[in-house]
Write a structure and sequence with these properties.
Length: 493
């Protein structure tokens, strides 16, 4: 098997794709080390590494007891010591940086042993590269881009390349990377130059490179003859073109050691059909939203949602959408699964994890009801200008008829027959941009639903409080896309 080193691993989406790829006979890649600095995401990585030790076997009952909170990690380790030991060796909780270079170097050397052929995967934190992130900080007098470590954490990636000289690497980042600037120079041009010769780049940064001084040829995974070879847009992968039920556009760089034939790396094959929200969320049990500031019960929920029919805003809704809302309210019932939970029966694997709903205020329930019915009727999510005036939020950025606002799509319903919008870490803040397409559920997406849109399997458990779970899912690479990247990279071996 080909060993893989995963850095900036998050909850493990990229690593999951590589480890789940099967060649003609068996799995081709083995995760040797996954490094992640966030303690909660590391717990997710460790637990998945533990479960992976039972590939082809039934997971022990103690594993499910751990998921239910009945057994802590120490107890789980005692029940399966060999598997827990492997999981702890694979999943490393460590922040990459100048102070941890020696520790990272030693951990990777130990994991690789005498192996020369391996793959490095991962991507530096992307907040500082993203268009939204830069826009948020533009007005901050205290923000200095050159001092933001997230702008230069890719140097730690260069250090690993120079120290260990993998046969290939896969580096993922946000599309905003293509237009980001640092020191009046495009970050993407600088990164391409540095990745070609990581040792020289490290010397420029005042770092000491290893003696191997590898060089890499960068390759794009998308075959598009309409884009020139020098155009950085060649490195943008549209996940929806490859079966992911989500419009997620990311920069994916594959580097091949110049001692090997990069021409062996095949392009990804586009999917025969586009995935959709409805196909991704099928088979999941109906859930109701929770209630904020009110008694949270099925009866209270039915009263809160059902009362929309007599509220003032209904008279301001176009007839076709109003008829759709009336039909939903006429047949409204409380779901048998209630608000769901972290561990419930159902789904493709007979078990659904991280599938519980958030609480919402009644005013937002009305907006969710209107928005999802509008989307069902019109085939598109409404913008604020389409909302009844009585439903407009009392927000400083919403003025007049709501057409003159940067928050025009503040409430976004995911349309059933289309790929979803990009699942980002912002889903942890609120659910306004991720409204469930079924009006009878009147809520935002659960962590499991977001994970399905990211193509994580139902038995992939995300540790920690719900806010952290959402962040982990939003920051991940879709495993389905990662598995296709793994197939291309495997051709190099």
């Amino acid at each position: 098997m080909i060993k893989v080193i995963d850095v900036f691993a998050g909850p493990g989406g990229l690593g999951e794709g590589f480890s789940s790829f099967r060649g003609r006979e068996d799995h081709r890649f083995e995760l040797a080390v996954s490094i992640e600095k966030d303690a909660v995401a590391h717990r997710t990585l460790r637990l998945r590494a533990f479960a992976r030790q039972f590939r082809g076997q039934r997971l022990p009952a103690t594993y499910y007891a751990h998921l239910r909170g009945e057994l802590d990690w120490k107890g789980l380790s005692a029940s399966s010591p060999a598997e827990a030991w492997h999981a702890e060796r694979e999943a490393v909780n460590l922040a990459l940086g100048p102070n941890t270079v020696d520790a990272v170097r030693e951990r990777i050397r130990e994991a690789l042993g005498k192996t020369e052929d391996f793959v490095l995967i991962g991507g530096p934190p992307c907040q500082a590269y993203s268009l939204v992130g830069r826009a948020r900080r533009r007005g901050s007098v205290d923000y200095v881009p050159e001092a933001d470590e997230r702008q230069t954490l890719y140097v730690e990636y260069l250090q690993i390349l120079a120290d260990h000289a993998p046969r290939a690497f896969v580096m993922e980042n946000v599309k905003g990377l293509l237009s980001a600037q640092l020191d009046s120079r495009g970050i993407f041009d600088r990164i391409r130059e540095d990745l070609h010769d990581p040792a020289r780049a490290l010397e420029r940064e005042g770092r000491r490179p290893g003696a191997r001084r590898p060089k890499y040829e960068l390759r794009a995974l998308v075959a598009d003859e309409t884009i020139s070879a020098d155009d950085p847009r060649r490195y943008v992968i549209r996940a929806e073109d490859f079966g992911v039920p989500q419009r997620r556009h990311r920069v994916i760089l594959v580097g091949v050691h110049t001692d090997f034939r990069s021409s062996l790396l095949p392009a990804l094959n586009p999917a025969s059909r586009t995935g959709s929200v409805s196909s991704a969320l099928s088979e999941l049990p109906r859930l109701r939203s929770g209630l904020s500031k009110l008694e949270d019960s099925n009866e209270s929920w039915l009263e809160a949602v059902g009362g929309a029919g007599s509220r003032r805003w209904m008279s301001q809704v176009d007839a076709d959408v109003r008829a759709r809302i009336s039909e939903v309210l006429k047949n409204l019932s409380a779901p048998k699964a209630g608000r769901g939970g972290e561990f419930i029966e159902g789904g493709q694997a007979g078990l659904i994890l991280n599938h519980s709903t958030r609480g919402h205020i009644v005013e937002d329930l009305d907006r969710y009801l209107f928005s999802s019915c509008y989307a069902r009727e019109r085939g598109v999510s409404p913008v604020l200008a389409d909302f009844p005036r009585a439903l407009l939020p009392a927000h400083a950025n919403v003025r007049g008829d709501a057409t003159d606002t940067v928050f025009g799509d503040r409430f976004r319903t995911q349309v059933s027959g289309e790929p979803s919008t990009t699942i980002t870490s912002h889903i942890s803040k609120d659910g306004l941009y991720y409204i469930h397409p079924d009006p009878s559920q009147c809520r935002s997406l659960t962590v499991r639903e977001a994970a399905r849109l990211q193509t994580f399997p139902d038995h992939y458990f995300f540790c920690g409080p719900r806010t952290s779970q959402y962040q982990q899912v939003g920051n991940a690479v879709p495993p389905l896309l990662a598995r296709q990247i793994a197939k291309s990279v495997a051709a190099l071996f």
